[in-house]
Amino acid sequence: MRAEAQPFPFEFELASTVLAVIDMQRDFIEPGGFGDSLGNDVSRLSFIVPACARVLSAWRKVGGLVLHTREAHRADLSDCPPAKRNRGQPRLRIGDPGPMGRILVSGEPGSEIVDALAPAAGEWVFDKPGKGMFYATRVHEELQAMRVKRLIFAGVTTEVCVQTSMREANDRGYECLLLEDCTESYFPEFKSATLEMVRAQGGIVGWTTSSKLLLAALATEGL
Ligand code: TIU
After folding, report:
1. Which pLDDT does position 220 carry in this prediction?
2. DSSP 8-state assignment for residue 99
């Protein structure tokens, strides 16, 4: 399969490619969560949910592998370094009780993925304590066991968890495509800079394209 992309077309085989949906959690997207507690306007992030849902639906229809991540800590915060918890002056810190339960803690309502993108049975769901999805998780081992070679990224936020995960993946030998309209940042200028920097220098971190062009590639194959 071949999707038009920048800096050049992205070639992939369905069996060895995973759709990675990063941290589409209430804690980042809805008021009262972690993103909000950091002082961000969270409303921008919800605009990508319909495009993410379209890609997820099409990818599931063709039988593609799906991976979801959640940035979420253990209830005892043993996997949350004090440096992370104590940074800055958030209104609520990680582990504090908020309107959606304890901030960024596994199992709390705020750590759940938004309903429209809820994981389906059999899809991977990884809780991760860091920004990158490979740090302190079994993601690499699981992907290697399935002989995965390529990752297609969606999710939030573009320059924090998505870019970190994409860079970690690139260093581990995966070819990575980022879906421009399926990722968002609290800072529009950070999103556009990230898209430019990942595809610069001949795709130094990877490729970018739109959900429309990815869906067109799936359709061209008669899928
Ligand atoms: N603050 C921010 O932009 N992002 C995060 O803290 N985590 C993720 O990006 N998921």
Report:
1. 85
2. B
